[in-house]
Design a protein that fits this description.
6-stranded parallel beta sheet; 14 helices; about 20% strand
Length: about 525
Amino acid sequence: MHRLPPHPLRTGGRTCVRAFVSTDEPKAVPALLGSKATAGVHEEAAMQTLVRGGRVIDPGTGFDGPADVLVDGDRIAAVGPGVAAPPGAAVVEAAGLVVGPGFVDLHSHVHSVAGQRLQAMDGVTTALDLEAGLMPVARAYMEAAAEGRPLHYGFSASWGGARAAVLTGRTQDARFASSLAVLGDPRWQRTSTPRELAAWLALIEDELAGGALGIGVLMGYAPASDPAEYLAVARLAAKAGVPTFTHVRELTEVDPATPVDGSAEVARAAAETGAAMHHCHVNSTSGRHVDRVLGTLEESRRAGSRVTVEAYPYGAGSTAVGAAFIAPERLRAKGLGPRSVVMVETGERIADEARLRLLRARDPGAPCLLEFLDEDAPGDRALLRRALAFPDAVVASDAMPVHWPDGAHDSAAWPLPPGGTTHPRTAGTFAKTLRLMVRETGTWSWPEAFRRCSYLPARVLDDVAPAARAKGRLAVGADADLVVLDPETVSDAATYAEPTRPSVGVRHLLVAGVPVIADGALRTDAFPGRPLRGEAR
């Protein structure tokens, strides 16, 4: 049996270590590749915190019971009943509360202090952009470190950015707004020539060498491109030992002329190459066909393929209005229409196809909502729950940037200034999932909820980022990323009308041992977020 390496607390010349032993934890857990000296963010001096008397859940060992958790600096030093508070340690009274590892979000596009603060109130301690990624990845890491982040952060190598650089000549600037703007450009959506394919694969390989956490593939935005290109990406991922994160192309039920069914393509690539393939937001790309898609993925996994899946609990997605699947003819194929599209910044519900075509031509990067399921309809709500309940599906938000009327995309103020617009999933994904799946329906136990929100997402990254092995766990030696929540009140508050309302019920949040939320209040001076980087082999 193995356990995370001891991180002893020394008090009065004595060493105190208490741990629950796991059979599946790694032998070694390296530190994050960033450091306090190089992260470029506000860091507090190493401190000790005792979280006392809570219901402690460690999804890594399966422990669920009353215990105390001692944090020493950025690591968990002791877990067990009756842990004494060292002199000078801060004490968090957690009686009646649930204590577990902070949530790991594999799919967040916020890239801002404001957005990460909303996610902190939702229980997130690590927010990663892995579906789209940013390019160049070195600049993305550098700028996040220079600006400071409340949460840990990281990025994949951007398939879309690499293709756009080669096929259109666009210079990549590691900005998500630039990524949205290019989505509607048909020049990058076509099939590559052999020389172009080799060129952008080389760019992706360079990004992996620069610390990218796998390859983010926006296949749904270039749905007519040759499937052989996707297999080439999967082969590169298998060779480098990194996962891919795919927004799949259209399903055959929606477009019988699609070169290959989007979800079947993920399964096929995993089987043929051995790569680890992650299917992003299965709820939004599958819609009312989610049962068939989940069956395809389950069959692939039973055959031994490395396929993982994520979902979020909303019936509307968000993207750029110029996206290929927002075209009027593509909406019709889904049984939708222009009125299913709402512009994020203005609230305009598109009246007709002529108006939609005008907006797509005038500002293809403008963010919009796309309603694909009716959350008020029992049948559609059941589809969303089935996507979340699928065995081993992880929760991921697809959090989007916040936009203000003056054009700002970030704010240092808290509470956030009024008028901010985004998708409510930015603020409420994890708390809404807990409300639906644990409190209201009992579909998940609390240990299963932490397994889906913390443990399993981190395990997707174990091979590419050894530092991820210390996340999603609550045991001696694990990262001191903790969430303490009220199981009776935790809930989303964000709505489509008021999308920046923070979730409620998260009482405390520690990131690398630093309190970001204390007694339900966000600390505006806390920027302990560190980079999580990949190590391609």
